[in-house]
Structure prediction request, 102 residues.
Amino acid sequence: MDSHTLSILSEVLQQAEAKLSTEGLTDEVRTGLATRILIVAQTGERDPKRLLTAALYWARARTNDAEAAALALAETETQNAADRRPGLPNYSEPLSERLGLV
Prediction:
């Protein structure tokens, strides 16, 4: 991956960590978030919002603080919907389902 892509992935990881409570943010969770972001990026995805959404779906399913992860995910999905521009694909199924993450 090039330096621009790595910069995007790093920013997405920082955003995911910021959205989760610090109590549930163990080294294992940080590693899991980074791994999920890399896995999704390896499919060719570079949209930071979609990468963040995938990481938060993972966090919701895996962390001890599932409630905080679910709230962060809902907030992110609401923002993504608000930012959707005309002419862009509007997939009817969530990214997590399209990538087989659930």
In short: Residues 3-98 form one domain.
